Amino acid sequence: MRFHNGAPTLQSGRLTLGPVNDAHCAAFIAFCATDTSRFLGGPSDSEDAWVGVAMQAGQWTLRGYGTFWVSETATATPVGRVGIFHPGWRSEPELSWVIYPAFQGRGFATEAALAARDWAYETCGFGPLMSLIDPANSASERVARRLGAANQGPHRTDVPHSVNRWRHPGREARA
Length: 175
What we know:
By secondary structure, this protein is α+β, with helices and mostly antiparallel strands. The chain has a domain at 10-126: Gcn5-related N-acetyltransferase (GNAT) (Aminopeptidase), CATH 3.40.630. It has helices spanning 22-32, 46-63, 108-124, 138-146; strands spanning 10-11, 15-18, 67-72, 77-85, 94-99, 130-133, 150-155, 163-167. A five-stranded antiparallel sheet has the order 1-2-3-4-5, with helices on both faces. A three-stranded antiparallel sheet has the order 6-8-7, with helices on one face. β3 and β4 form a beta hairpin. α1 (22-32) crosses α2 (46-63). The chain is globular and about 35 Å long. The relative contact order is 0.14. The mean pLDDT is 93.
């Protein structure tokens, strides 16, 4: 197995995507304590949320790619997490996004996901990525549509309910 260092830093128009830090960890733990984390399996306690942060950070070491922790560039305020989620039990990588409620509705999910997807295609050589979205998560479905993804229908995963698999356009047809 080849081990890697943490996430690189990417810049988009208004956002900085990079490795996790203490502020990101604290913001994610606070988010996970609320009902707004339900599409990630929450609410969850601080211990479970911390394990989630560690798992996301560990992907960079084990796979050489993973999720970026997103900050508003102007203020350095954590706004969420976006990138490639690929735990060992999944057969393919997923483009995922979580934007905290105070920052939703500003286009941050789309902006950050485009930056992460472009990076994954260019740096990792991935083909068309997929996103797994709970059918009740209409906000994430809107982001997927803005990214040019197509709903391929129900998909069973490691969660106890069905989600829809959305397929993103490949490198040649980026949104």
